[in-house]
Amino acid sequence: MNIKSLAINKSNTHQALWIALGGLSSFALSILSAAILSRYFDKSEYGTYRQILYVYTTLLVVFTAGLPRVYAYYLPRYTLAQGKDIIWNVTKVLLLAGLLFSIFLYIFSGLIGEALGNPELSKGLKCFSPVPLLLLPTLGLEGILSTYKKAVYIAAYNFITRLLSLLCIVSPVLLFSGNYLYAIFGWIVASVLTLVIAYFFKGIPFKGIESEKSGLGIKEILTYSIPLSIASIAGIAIKAADQFYISRYFGSEIFAEFANGFIELPFAIMITSAVATVVMPVFSKMIHEKSDLNMISSLWYSSLQKSAVLIYPLVVFFIVFANKVMVLLYSSKYEASSVFFIISMTSSFFNVIVFAPLLFALGETKFYARLHIGIALSAWILGYFVVVLFNSPIAVAIFSTLQSIMVVIVSLVFTSRRIGIKFLTLFPISKLLKIGLHSFLSVVIVYVILDSLFEALNSIMYISIALILYLLVLFLLSPIFRIDYLSIIKPIFYSALKS
What we know:
about 500 residues; mainly alpha; 24 helices
């Protein structure tokens, strides 16, 4: 496969495809790493290892200050030569942030270990402390390459670096029967390699280009990025609220059912993340150049329709077969998790609307932060009253889902007024209902067939047959609903064959 030839195709659909494939490979390799380490470590060691990851990912939001997201906003507004200067300036700030992050982990490792009730965590965090210094400068690569329509390199970078991480982290554990510290030392080696590879990939769009001063100051960049960091912190608080209330008031068994079931589909997240990465720099350029509103609404509608056509059928399928899916994943002990799974899945009907890129392209990061702070306060204050009034973990889950939907609706109302586009243009209810109705009718037909003929099958066979029949019925009924699934899928096969 010639990666340069693949990079030539610059359509938004192909760009999103490559980003989604990169995300899929990252997800698969992460799951594989967790599966291997959880089998070789005892519960105490694996718990310490996961706590280190938890501390790192939580503090990462604070120390990056939203900087990785600025690329997709600023780069489309400057020349290629000026873009090179912007990337170097932001990378220097990320390097400094990484240094401060590493020092913080080393100095406060003891306090963090005490706070989380694990003295061993102090030693682990000290060993892990060089990682932020190495990895923070690598962040934001997706925004750079998607801006310059080189998303195929994002897929390549994600696959290469995640594979190297898997090998470096797992190999010393397997070869030397090592404890979690062996995995941490492997992570440091992987981080060094990732830094070198990221430096190479960041330079791909700028080969032969001399850097030119952009005039964009760090103060201006931070004014845009810090509200994004605040919003991310508020997002963590939002997610923590329902976990806290269910854990505290309904016990560990109910919490286990909730934790397993109240999740989003990874594939849906990959698709929406890929779309957001691709359209963000396009929206930023359009708004900066004051493009016609019809062009903006056309890109929005096209992105939304393609996302819904891919995601809605998956969401409907997993809602209808939630019981079987939970049993397949977690055994019959967690069949009750299906209720939480269904509740969580309903938010995907709204989360398919990727509003953030347009909002960020407008520079409305402060509104985004205020909205998330408001929802975070609501999650903790009103969440308590939900517990007191209903005394039900299901009520807590429903309330959490309604808040997620509220973020989407409020953001769309604000954006529609901000740019003067009708709300129903940003939220085409009739089109989305048609896609949902088609998916629901198709899955009901499959459910009736399976319930009468194949009910005795084990879960994995049942789900596999159901999915195959569902896709078949979905395509057979698509002409009736005038939904062209092939127009979305064809570019995938066309790109694969052409490569």
